């Protein structure tokens, strides 16, 4: 890797860290760059996964104000994310990618529909609970735990637009502000990337220069993303989510 290639990887890391903190899908920035500088696909994937961990941690620190009062929620969802991440990482090593390549755009498209429809769906769910005399589960209940486990399996396998799926699931099943939900998403992203990276340490080869460059860039991007993301009102944040998710679908289908 020459100096210009190294610079490109670092800049891609900044972009990925920024967009991951605001929405997700940073992998769609870094992964193609790693392939372009000559890394094999699996090495690029696992190096990218490890390199993005500091960015997720940085973004979570940037959103620490929105994390207040969410300790129990974070702990519950983190357990689901951990199980899913390790399972997804194991699938990456043992299964061909064809099935995932087919289903990923469909998952992202469904997540985008949920993000757009979330305010109306959430109101309908609340009205139904009120008619039936039930109360909303503060942490989303078993449905959210199951959904987040499956989403984290995908995150451990590849992870592009994983944040979009997280935001769609939590936005639908948790009655809370979208910025607070986004803060939880950053914690879960760090857990999934970190758990998958630890698994990969024992079974896959890393390009440690690429890991370092992405780690530095994504840590910077995490702080930038927190500054930008928390200033967006819910409607604008949803618009960004839809725009990024749509770009992710287009890129995945074309590739």
Describe what you observe in this structure:
Helices cover 82% and strands 0% of the residues. It contains eleven helices and no strands. The protein has helices spanning 3-22, 27-36, 41-51, 53-62, 71-94, 98-132, 141-157, 162-173, 178-203, 208-229, 234-254. Helix 2 (27-36) packs across helix 3 and helix 7 packs antiparallel against helix 8 (162-173).
Observed structural traits:
255 residues, mainly alpha
What's the arrangement of secondary structure elements?
Elements: H1 3-22, H2 27-36, H3 41-51, H4 53-62, H5 71-94, H6 98-132, H7 141-157, H8 162-173, H9 178-203, H10 208-229, H11 234-254
Helix pairs in contact: 1-2, 1-4, 1-10, 2-3, 3-9, 3-10, 4-9, 4-10, 5-7, 5-9, 6-8, 6-11, 7-8, 7-9, 8-9
Summary?
This protein has 255 residues and is mostly helical.
Radius of gyration: 17 Å
DSSP helical segment count: 11
Helix content: over 70%
Note the beta-strand portion.
Answer: under 5%
Average pLDDT: 82
Number of extended strands: 0
Overall form: globular
Low-confidence stretches: none
């Amino acid at each position: 890797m020459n100096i210009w290639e190294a610079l490109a990887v670092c800049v891609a890391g900044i972009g990925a860290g920024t967009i991951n903190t605001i929405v997700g899908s940073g992998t769609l920035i870094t992964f193609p760059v790693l392939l372009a500088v000559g890394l094999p696909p699996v090495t690029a994937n696992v190096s990218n996964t490890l390199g993005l961990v500091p960015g997720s941690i940085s973004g979570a620190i940037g959103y620490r104000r929105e994390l207040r009062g969410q300790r129990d929620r974070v702990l519950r969802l983190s357990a689901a994310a951990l199980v899913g991440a390790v399972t997804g990482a194991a699938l990456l090593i043992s299964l061909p990618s064809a099935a995932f390549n087919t289903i990923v755009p469909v998952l992202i498209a469904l997540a985008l529909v949920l993000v757009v429809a979330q305010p109306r769906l959430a109101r309908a769910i609340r009205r139904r609970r009120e008619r039936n005399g039930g109360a909303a589960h503060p942490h989303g209940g078993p449905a959210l735990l199951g959904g987040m486990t499956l989403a984290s399996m995908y995150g451990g396998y590849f992870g592009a637009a994983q944040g979009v799926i997280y935001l769609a699931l939590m936005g639908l099943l948790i009655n809370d502000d979208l910025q607070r939900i986004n803060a939880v998403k950053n914690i879960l992203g760090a857990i999934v990337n970190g758990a998958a990276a630890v698994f990969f340490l024992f079974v896959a080869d890393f390009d440690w220069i690429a890991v370092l460059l992405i780690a530095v860039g994504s840590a910077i991007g995490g702080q930038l993303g927190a500054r930008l993301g928390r200033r967006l009102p819910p409607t604008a944040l949803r618009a960004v989510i839809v725009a990024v998710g749509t770009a992710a679908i287009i890129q995945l289908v074309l590739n």
